[in-house]
C-alpha cells in the first residue's frame, strides 16, 4: 500500500526504515475500534454539516462492510500498510472512491490512535475484571470448603499461630477485590475521549466533540487538545494495576509451589494442572504456578517500558508513543491467561487437612494462647509472655508439646495454671476464639466470604 501522507515527499521509504516504522504487525488488533471511531467521526461530520449526509452514509456503509469482511475473513489485513489507521482509510477509499477521502477531515492519526487505544483497553479492562470476579468466586468456594481446616499461619515462614485454610485463602480474595477496584478507578480516566484534538491544536472546523464521546460510550471529551494526543497515563495506570494483579498471583503461586512440595504436602493439585518430568518418573510439578510467578516479571517489565518511554517526551505526539502498544497489549494478554489458568488450578486444588493439622500441632503455635490464658487470669501480658517462653524452652528440651505437659509441670512456672488451660490451648479453641473483626474464627471467615460475594456484584 502507498503512503497516505505522500505529497511533500514521494512516500518511498527505504525498506529497512519502512519496516522499522510500521506498526501494522501489532496494531492490527485495533481494527474494530478504529472502524467504530471512524463511524462516530463520520456521523459527527455530517451532523455538523462538514460533509453531506450522503457522503457520511457512504462512509459508514463502507466502514461497516470492511468490518464484516475482516471478521468473516473475506478481507485480509495488508501487512504492507503503515498502520491499521492507514489500512482502513485506504481500503475505504479503494471501495467507495472520493467520499472515503473526506473521512480524515477534522482529525489526525494522533487523536485517532489515542481514541482507538482507549476503546480497545476499555474492553480489555472489562475482560480482566470479569476474570478477576471468576477467580474471586473460586477462591470463596474453596474458602467455604476449608473454613474450619486448621493449619499453621506463618510469619518469617516460621510457624506462628493457628489459622484456617479458609481464612488464608480469603486474604487473597481481598487482594483480587482491590485489584478489580483499581481497574474500575483507572477506567474513570480511561474513558475520556481525545478525538477532535486533531494533530495537537484542535481544529478550525465547527466540530462537536461531545457528540462523538457520547456516541462512543465515553464519559466526556478531554479538555485540552495537546494533552488529548500526548496522554498515555491510562496505559501506565492500567499496567500498574495489572502489575499488582501479578504480584498477588505470584505470591499465591509461591505458596502453591511450597504447599504442594513433599516438605509441606498441604495441598494436592489436580493432575490436569500439573506436568511430569522427562527423566524422573515420580514427578508431579506445579508448572502453572511457577509460570505465573515467572510471567510477573514480564508485566513489571511492560510497566517500566511504558514509564521509561514517556519519561522526557516533549509535548505533543512523538513516534516513541507507538511503543505503548506492545507493552500494554502484552500486559493484558499475560494477565488474562494467568487469571484463566489460576481459576482452573484453584478449582481443582484439594487440601490435605490432616497434614495441615499435624503441622499446626508442631512448632508451639499455641504459645500466644498460653500467654493469653495467663493474662486473662490477671497476669500482666509481658509476664505471661515470659512464662510461656520459658515453658516452650522446657518443652523443646523435654521433646513435648504444650498439651503434653502435666499440670504439675505447669505449676513449676506459675500457680495460676488450672485444668482449664488444656481447653484454652486446644488448636480449635485457638482458632475459634479469634472472633475479632477479620480474625480467623469460622464465623469471621463466613462473614468475609459473604461480604466479598456481595461486593463482587459491583465489579
Ligand atoms: N502508528 C502510530 C502510533 O501507533 C499512529 C499515529 C501516527 N501518527 C503520526 N503522527 N505519525 O502511534
Radius of gyration: 30 Å
Poorly predicted regions: none
What portion of residues is helical? 55-70%
Shape: elongated
Number of extended strands: 6
Report the mean per-residue pLDDT as an integer.
Answer: 97
Distance between the termini: 44 Å
What secondary-structure arrangement, pairings included, does this model have?
Elements: H1 15-21, H2 24-27, H3 31-47, H4 53-72, H5 84-96, H6 109-145, E1 150-155, E2 158-164, H7 165-190, E3 192-193, H8 209-215, E4 220-221, H9 225-230, H10 233-259, E5 267-268, H11 287-310, H12 324-347, E6 350-351, H13 353-361, H14 367-376, H15 381-398, H16 407-411, H17 421-424, H18 427-432, H19 442-455
Helix pairs in contact: 3-4, 3-6, 3-8, 4-5, 6-7, 6-12, 6-19, 7-10, 7-19, 10-11, 10-12, 11-12, 14-15
Bound molecules: arginine (ARG).
Q: Tags for this entry?
A:
6 strands; 459 residues; mainly alpha; Fumarase C, Chain A, domain 2; 19 helices; 2 domains; two-stranded antiparallel sheet; 5% strand; Fumarase C, Chain B, domain 1; binds arginine; single chain
Structure notes:
The protein is mainly alpha-helical. The protein has two domains: 15-105, Orthogonal Bundle (Fumarase C, Chain B, domain 1); 110-358, Up-down Bundle (Fumarase C, Chain A, domain 2). The chain contains 19 helices and six strands. It has a two-stranded antiparallel ribbon. Helix 8 links the parallel strand 3 and strand 4. Helix 3 runs antiparallel to helix 4, helix 10 packs antiparallel against helix 11 (287-310) and helix 10 (233-259) runs parallel beside helix 12 (324-347). The structure holds arginine (ARG).
Amino acid at each position: 500500500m502507498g503512503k497516505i501522507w505522500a505529497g511533500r515527499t514521494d512516500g518511498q521509504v527505504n525498506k529497512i526504515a519502512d519496516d522499522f516504522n510500521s506498526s501494522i504487525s501489532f496494531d492490527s488488533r485495533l481494527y474494530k475500534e478504529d472502524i467504530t471511531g471512524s463511524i462516530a467521526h463520520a456521523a459527527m461530520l455530517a451532523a455538523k454539516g462538514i460533509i453531506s449526509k450522503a457522503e457520511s452514509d457512504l462512509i459508514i456503509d463502507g466502514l461497516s462492510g470492511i468490518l464484516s469482511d475482516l471478521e468473516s475473513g473475506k478481507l485480509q489485513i495488508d501487512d504492507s500498510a503503515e498502520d491499521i489507521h492507514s489500512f482502513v482509510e485506504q481500503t475505504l477509499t479503494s471501495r467507495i472512491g472520493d467520499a472515503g477521502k473526506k473521512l480524515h477531515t477534522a482529525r489526525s492519526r494522533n487523536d485517532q490512535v489515542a481514541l482507538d487505544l482507549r476503546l480497545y483497553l476499555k474492553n480489555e479492562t472489562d475482560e480482566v475484571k470479569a476474570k478477576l470476579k471468576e477467580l474471586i468466586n473460586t477462591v470463596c468456594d474453596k474458602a467455604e470448603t476449608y473454613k474450619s481446616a486448621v493449619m499453621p499461619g506463618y510469619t518469617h515462614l516460621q510457624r506462628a499461630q493457628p489459622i484456617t485454610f479458609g481464612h488464608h485463602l480469603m486474604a487473597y480474595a481481598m487482594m483480587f477485590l482491590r485489584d478489580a477496584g483499581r481497574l474500575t478507578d483507572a477506567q474513570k480516566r480511561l474513558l475520556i475521549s481525545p478525538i477532535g484534538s486533531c494533530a495537537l491544536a484542535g481544529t478550525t472546523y465547527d466540530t462537536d466533540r461531545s457528540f462523538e464521546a457520547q456516541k462512543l460510550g465515553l464519559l466526556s471529551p478531554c479538555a485540552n487538545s495537546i494533552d488529548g494526543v500526548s496522554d498515555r497515563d491510562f496505559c501506565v495506570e492500567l499496567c500498574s494495576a495489572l502489575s499488582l494483579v501479578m504480584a498477588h498471583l505470584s505470591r499465591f503461586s509461591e505458596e502453591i509451589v511450597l504447599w504442594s512440595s513433599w516438605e509441606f504436602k498441604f495441598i494436592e493439585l489436580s493432575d490436569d494442572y500439573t506436568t511430569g518430568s522427562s527423566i524422573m518418573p515420580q514427578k508431579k510439578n506445579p508448572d502453572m504456578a511457577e509460570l505465573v510467578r515467572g510471567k510477573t516479571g514480564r508485566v513489571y517489565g511492560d510497566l517500566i517500558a511504558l514509564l521509561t518511554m514517556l519519561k522526557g517526551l516533549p509535548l505533543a505526539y512523538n513516534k516513541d508513543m507507538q511503543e505503548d502498544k506492545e507493552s500494554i497489549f502484552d500486559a493484558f494478554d499475560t494477565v488474562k491467561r494467568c487469571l484463566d489458568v489460576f481459576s482452573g488450578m484453584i478449582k481443582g486444588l484439594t487440601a490435605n487437612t490432616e497434614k495441615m493439622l499435624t503441622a499446626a500441632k508442631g512448632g508451639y503455635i499455641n504459645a500466644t494462647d498460653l500467654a493469653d490464658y495467663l493474662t486473662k487470669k490477671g497476669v500482666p501480658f509481658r509476664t505471661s509472655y515470659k512464662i510461656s517462653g520459658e515453658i516452650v524452652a522446657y518443652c523443646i528440651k523435654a521433646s513435648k508439646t504444650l498439651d503434653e505437659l502435666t499440670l504439675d509441670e505447669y505449676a513449676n512456672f506459675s500457680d495460676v495454671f488450672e485444668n482449664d488451660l488444656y481447653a484454652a490451648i486446644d488448636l480449635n479453641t485457638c482458632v475459634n476464639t479469634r472472633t475479632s473483626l477479620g480474625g480467623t474464627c469460622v464465623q469471621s471467615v463466613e462473614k468475609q466470604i459473604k461480604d466479598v460475594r456481595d461486593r463482587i456484584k459491583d465489579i
